[in-house]
Design goal:
heterodimer; A: mainly alpha; B: alpha/beta; six-stranded mixed β-sheet; 9 helices; 10 strands; binds adenosine-5'-triphosphate; binds magnesium ion
């Protein structure tokens, strides 16, 4: 039972929360960038030009079929090798998460707009709304309503995926946990259990409310 | 305005989808206060004709005019013309993210720039007329199909249009709701609203129409007063079509 003491020794708890903050910061930055870039990806996928559409499709599929870990290594080690630019781990992490996130957001944006029935456009137009008014009052609000729960879901996946970046030396919450476990390996052999339980709880505290919120918004949309 | 003033003039209209000719050299006028019912087999181009009148479809020949002003797909003048043409579709097409009141008042406020109190007052009055005064704050998802279509009618009416185009507005409704919607349309007809109505409800068509137009193969096959069309149609094609609505053992 004494493994639990490890959590409260020194500033271990503080260090874990600090690690969680790194996780959250990287996720937040990446989600922000993904949203920005993903809106353009989605918009490009909705244009009529088949070449533009195909390029976006290929991008999304390639990102989807390769494990994120492979992307992370390609960016972190590959770019450093190829260009000599010394990327720090956090930057590489944000690049990987953004490449992935933007492709997901792009596909969500495409889906959100193309799921709006053509009658919504036509009823708006037949009331005399201009194109701009049509989008501002009718199309965008419905698309956003569809997008918000999906983007929240994506955020929770992004927070979880951020755990990968401990593998390129970024000290996020999982890495901090490992350091604590390693430092106490001999005195407290079962510390790992407690540390991971604490990390589990931390992820839960962050992700569960998001997941609830997303579910609630989805339900509201389907009413 | 005399009874004879034309609201809509369709002249030599031709509409194709690719090589498919849907409407071929069709001419037709609708006068002030007149109710014209369009009847014809499925796929004969009734919806397409209404969509052309509202400029939702590009046409390949001829013209549609509202009060002498050409309705042209893709022209900016279209936005003004559409305010004067009310259109209600078969599918429930209320804006799902807005309350009934917002659905109804959006266009008069944003498109016509009218005063909010005045528009809200008219909205309440019209909703009352179709028996939905208590639903002003409801969302479309809380309404039955029949209620949605009545709101859709009010949403068009509040623009004070010169003509209403109704495209099979009861086709997607459960039978017991058809009546409540068609009664609203009958009331409008009594009140002198100019309308073009596509419907498969023959009894309703006969009751509401001043003139029946039977379309087939992209042309007007027969054009009659309703008593004539439904009881002694002249053309063989109309007779055959009407037979599909009667049953005998
Ligand atoms: N966007 C389109 N592209 C190609 N063909 C179309 C399109 N819209 C309609 N058509 C064709 O045009 C013809 C007329 O269609 P329309 O919807 O006007 O018929 P309708 O008389 O309203 O039939 P219904 O009674 O079934 O509603 C049909 O053969 C249809 O397949
Ligand atoms: Mg039709």
């Amino acid at each position: 039972m004494q493994g639990i003491e490890v959590l409260f020794m020194g500033n271990n708890m503080l260090r874990l929360w600090g690690g969680l903050w790194v996780t959250l910061r990287l996720s937040l930055i990446s989600i922000g960038l993904s949203l920005f870039i993903g809106l353009f990806v989605g918009a490009f996928m909705l244009v009529k030009n088949p070449i533009v559409k195909a390029i976006c499709r290929v991008y999304i599929e390639i990102v989807r079929i390769m494990p994120q870990l492979v992307w992370l290594f390609i960016i972190f080690f590959g770019i450093t090798k190829l260009t000599g630019i010394d990327l720090d781990g956090e930057t590489a992490a944000v690049i990987m998460l953004t490449i992935w996130g933007a492709s997901e957001v792009g596909d969500l944006v495409r889906a959100a707009f193309s799921s709006i029935p053509s009658h919504q456009f036509e009823s708006g137009l037949s009331l005399g709304l201009s194109r701009v008014q049509l989008y501002v009052y009718i199309i965008f609000p419905q698309a956003v309503r569809g997008l918000v729960p999906d983007v929240i879901n994506l955020s929770t996946r992004m927070i979880k995926t951020t755990a990968l970046v401990s593998l390129i030396g970024v000290t996020e919450v999982l890495k901090v946990g490992k350091q604590i476990i390693d430092a106490n390996r001999f005195e407290y052999p079962n510390a790992a259990l407690w540390v991971y339980a604490a990390i589990f709880l931390m992820y839960f505290i962050i992700c569960f409310p998001l997941s609830l919120l997303s579910r609630k918004l989805t339900k509201k949309r389907g009413e | 305005m005399t009874m004879e003033e034309h609201i809509i003039d369709i002249e030599h209209l031709t509409k194709k989808f690719g090589d498919n000719v849907i409407i071929s050299d069709l001419s037709l006028s609708v006068s002030q206060g007149e109710v014209v019912v369009l009847i014809g087999p499925s796929g004969c181009g009734k919806s397409t004709l209404l969509r052309c009148i509202n400029g939702l479809e590009p046409v390949q020949g001829g013209s549609v005019k509202l009060h002498g002003e050409p309705v042209e797909h893709g022209k900016s003048s279209l936005y003004n013309i559409r305010q004067k043409i009310g259109m209600v579709f078969q599918s429930y097409d209320l804006f799902p993210h807005m309350t009934v009141m917002k659905n109804v008042t959006l266009a008069p406020l944003k498109v016509q720039g009218r005063n909010k109190d005045e528009v809200t007052g008219q909205a309440m009055e019209l909703l009352g007329r179709v028996g939905l005064a208590d639903k002003a704050d409801a969302y479309p998802s809380e309404l039955s199909g029949g209620q949605k279509q009545r709101v859709a009618i009010v949403r068009s009416l509040i623009m004070n249009p010169d003509i209403m185009l109704l495209d099979e507005i009861t086709a997607a409704l459960d039978p017991e709701m058809v009546h409540e919607v068609l009664n609203v349309v009958l009331d409008l007809a009594k009140g002198g609203t100019t309308m073009m109505i596509v419907t498969h409800e023959m009894a309703f068509a006969e009751a509401v129409a001043d003139r029946v137009i039977f379309l087939d193969g992209g042309v007007i096959v027969e054009e009659d007063a309703p008593e004539v069309f439904f009881h002694s149609p002249k053309t063989e094609r109309a007779q055959r079509f009407l037979k599909t609505f009667t049953y005998s053992k």
